[in-house]
Amino acid sequence: MDNTEICGGSTDLAGLINCHFIFNALNTLKYSVIKGNPGTCGLIDDIAAYMRYRIRAVYGFEMVFLSEEMRYMKSYINLEQARFSNVHAEYNLEDTDFTLPSMSVIFLVENAIHHGILARKGGGKLQVNTYMDSLYHYVEVCDNGAGIKEYNGRYPESSNNGIGNLAALALRIENMTGGSLLIESVQGEGTKAVIKIPA
Question: Where are the alpha helices (DSSP H) in the chain?
Answer without folding.
Answer: 3-8, 19-34, 40-56, 66-83, 104-111, 166-177
